[in-house]
């Protein structure tokens, strides 16, 4: 037992050191700009160029599907948030936006506490918005009570998501961008869309020198009941990821996720198929920062020195 624990501790330390070394290299290269908060970074010019180039590659890869393009802000209607089960399953990851809504007296009291270096945040009131935990979440309430056209809908999304999980791992950011392809329709069509994208995305990453492998996965459900939810999610094959070692072979990083939500969002928001059935949904998510980090780790910190075929594919 002690030997196993020691091996586990050694692996954890080795992984932590690898995270720190890679993060420091990214900072020295100007790709990440520390802000003093773990998992919150500014991005340098080359980092943004790589993300833009990959984002454009995804646009070209999905163009034949002719999706409807939508873009939502990184804040989410609190009333809509309360309609989904995120607070039950992921309370540790949520981000609530609070603001000052008092008058002059309350402002004076807050300033007095601020100047005394006391806790002034109890003068803040929850705003009508939450930080968006997944960029497809705002899409479903926008379709409340609608009946889909024949064949359902395809939607292209891109935006920032927030998850409160501070970490020294540069690939585990608190706020990050996702590019998503969402399918809404009948169960067979939706699940087939999700499954086809696994092969399509794997080939796309492989063309950039990133040999990511598919793996069954589960979301990080909270609490005692979370283990059962995670087990059921894996048993029903509702979530897959494309994973690639960035800092650790034993703990590879998920670059993409492929999620089948069944009829959850269709039921909550009253979305119906053309035949009048409750719509099913699936989303395919590209982690843009994680893919950029994988590219820098694989090919080096200077994009102009990357293999010619990778630069050609990305248009760099």
Class of the largest domain, according to the CATH hierarchy?
Answer: Alpha Beta
Helix content: 25-40%
Count of separate DSSP helical elements: 11
Strand content: 15-25%
Going by helix content, strand content and strand pairing, the class is: alpha+beta
- Characterize the overall form: globular
CATH topology of the largest domain: BirA Bifunctional Protein, domain 2
Question: In sequence order, what are the helices and strands, one letter per element?
Answer: HEEHEEHHEHEHEEHEHEEHEHH
Largest sheet: 7 strands, mixed
Total of domains:
2
CATH architectural grouping of the largest domain: 2-Layer Sandwich
Roughly how many Å apart are the termini?
51 Å
Oligomer: single chain
Mean pLDDT: 93
Low-confidence runs: 1-5
Name the CATH homologous superfamily of the largest domain: Bira Bifunctional Protein, Domain 2
Order of the strands making up the biggest sheet: 3-7-8-12-11-10-9
Radius of gyration: 21 Å
The tally of strands reads 12
Outline the structure in words.
This protein has 316 residues and is α+β, with helices and mostly antiparallel strands. It folds into two domains: 2-93 and 133-314, BirA Bifunctional Protein, domain 2, CATH 3.30.930.10; 96-126, no CATH class. Helices cover 40% and strands 23% of the residues. It has helices spanning 2-28, 45-62, 78-81, 86-89, 104-115, 139-142, 187-206, 224-235, 264-269, 288-299, 308-314; strands spanning 32-34, 41-43, 68-70, 75-77, 96-100, 124-131, 153-162, 175-185, 213-216, 239-244, 253-262, 280-287. A seven-stranded mixed β-sheet has the order 3-7-8-12-11-10-9. Helix 2 packs across helix 10. The longest helix has 27 residues, at 2-28. The chain is globular and about 60 Å long. It starts with a helix and ends with a helix. 30% of the residues are buried. Residues 1-5 have low confidence and may be disordered.
